Structures are given as structure tokens and as C-alpha cells.
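#struct-help
A.M.: can someone run this one for me? Single chain, 431 residues.
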Amino acid sequence: MLDIADELNRWLEEGREFAVATVVAVGGSAPRGPGAALAVDADGTAIGSVSGGCVEGAVYELCVQALADGETVRERFGYSDEDAFAVGLTCGGVLDILITPVPADGPGRKTLQTALSAAARGEAVALARVVRGPAELLGRALAVRHDGSCEGGLGGHPDLDRAAVDETRSLLDVGRTGTFEIAQDGSHCETGLTVFVESSVPPPRMLVFGAIDFAAALVRVGKFLGYHVTVCDARPVFATRTRFPEADDIVVDWPHRYLHGTRTDDRTVVCVLTHDAKFDVPLLEAALRLPAAYIGAMGSRRTHEDRDRRLREIGLTESELARLHSPIGLDLGARTPEETALSIAAEIVAVRHGGTGLPLSESHTPIHHDTEARRLGVISASDQDGAFPGTAVVDLNNENDQFSINRKPVGFLVGGGRDRDPRLPSCAEGF
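D.P.: on it. C-alpha cells below:
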């Protein structure tokens, strides 16, 4: 729902009644992910989308019905072998959708307004809603800010809201949308409720170093992808608002000095387009030791080899150098600044979502990648007597990480292999 916060916040301010349908779970190759939303007001005006077109008509009618009867419902849409084009997803995926009415005098309206107005202002906020549980709790909402203050409540036991705020903040802190299971008394001993959390955080940063024509094109693409874009260059004659009208910030400073003094996190994208050793080397020395989702540097292969040598000479390690994407971008045969910006953006998207960069017609991987599952390595396992049924999750970034099934430790990863507990079922695969 927070993906259409601007429009919904305006509807709330105007006093409109509406119903909103939110994707709360997906399976298979569903076209849109959790949090995607479609809203319909009392006049029949619709905004947003839950499926890119597959089931919009049916969901629209459910929103109209919710406005009429005031009932919150959860519906599942999936592929139907008998009639694939009736109300099912032609892509073969599954969508679970929560449809919630928001009447003018509804008790949850203020909670929604708190979350939506904060999201519209670009502030960090999360909206937690009950998506599985007793009918009287379905759709109950809790808006949680970064400092832990909240609005609304999930109902039930007084400890439920306190525990839900803690769980919600843990997802908000990392900017994730997802679910957690919790009992109605707020404990984790049983799972009576499923709570869906949508997190809205300030846009990720794109730092573009080098005020050149290629940078101007990359700024436009970065804004299109939703980044807060900063252009930095030490030369004031080039780093101007006239040359970069779409940039959020323009900084005249030595790149490495600016990078040391600004904020980066694990969503930040760093694009080094200066291809001049006096700028590149101190800048990349700093960048490769800071948190960032992507670090790329422009230049020919000869420039890259010289840059790599210089970085090694000043002490960067193999693991630090492995973070560098150089020459920057995917091989699209790009020549113009716009084509080059597209190739850089394509590589950023591929890195972000674990894509291969190959044409889909030549790739045998899922079209929609589950980046978290790729990073963690998720397996399912059960032995003959059911001793370890469930799912094992292993952080593949940690070579010696212990893994567990249903929170019971059963083995370790050692050098990519498995030194496993003898009770670990042989059918456990995926490593």
C-alpha cells in the first residue's frame, strides 16, 4: 500500500472513502511483489495495480464489495488449468491479496493516515497489519516510526502490540517488507497470527562522481529508478545545476573527501566516471571500504588494469577489490551517453536482484529472482520418521555458518561442503 502513498494520502485528506487491496504473499512467477496495491474510491476511481493486469478486474470488484459491506477479506488468485484466462494469473504464479475498506469514520483510518503521510514525506515508517487470524482482527493495523513510536493497534492481548512493534521495527531498520508469526498474547510459542509489514524508507542514494556527459545521462536514469542522485566533482565549472538539472544534489569537492564525509549504506550505489587516477584511486580506496550495494568505475580495460594495480599497491585486499565492477556496466554494445547509462543501470539492477545479465531467452533461471533466498540458500528437508521436517536457511556469505531446520542445529557449511550431523536427512539439497 505504501507504494501509492502519495495518492492515498491525498484521498484521506480529501475525506474520501475507499478500499485498498494489497498483495501480502506471492508464489511462483507472480508479476508483482508483496506490498503492491490497488485502491478504489466510492466513485469507482482506481489507482495502483496488484498484478500488472492479470486479475485487476476481479480485485476491483472485491474492492467495490468491501466498500459496500465493510468487510475485510483475504483472497488467493492462482493459475487454473481448467480456465487459465478466467480470473487466474496467466503467468502461473499465486497472489494472496488482503482487501480492506477504509470508511470515513473507520477506526483504522487515523493509523493509515499516519503511515501514508509519513511515507509521502519520505520518512521511515512501517505499516503492520494482521493478514491471517481471527476475523475480528483481520486487517487491524499498527503504524510504527523509526524511533519506535506507533499509532493504532492489532487488538487482542495487551502484550501483542508491544511485541508487534519490536518485530516491525526490526524489518523497518533494514527497509524490508515481509511477515512474522506471533501468538495473540504476543509470545512466539505459537503462531496464531500472521502479520504483514510494509516498510517505507527514504530512497536509496546514487553517488555519481565525475561531471561529464555520461553522468548527465546516468542522473536521468538514476532518477527514473527511484534513487536520490548526487553529482560530485572537484571542478566547479562542470558541476553546475545547468548541466545537471535533474540531480537532487550537486557537490563541488574532491570526490574522496566528500565520500568520507557523507552517509552510505547497503543500498547506496557508487558510480565513478572520472577515469582519472588522481580522482579514482583515493575515491575507490574509500568506497571499497564503506557499505554500498554497488561500486562501479568507468574506463577502458587498460585503465582498469592500471587502476587495479594502483589499488593493490596501496593495500586493498582481494575481497575489497572483488566488490568493484570495472569496466562499469553490462556489455550492450553501448556507445552514446544514454546507451552507456542504460548499460550501467542494467548492471545495477542485475546486482541488486541477483540477475545473470543474460537474455531471458537464453537463461534458465526464474524471471523474478528471490534475492534473499539466493543469498541465504534455502532448502527443504525431511527424513523418513519426520525428525527434521521443514526448511533450512544458510547464509552463503559465511563459509562456516551453522544451519538449522525448524531452528534445530543440524550441521555446518565448511568450504562449500557439508560436515553434517549424521541425523541430517540425505534429501537435503541446494548447496
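A.M.: thanks! DSSP finds eleven helices and 21 strands in the chain.
D.P.: also worth noting: The longest helix spans residues 337-353.
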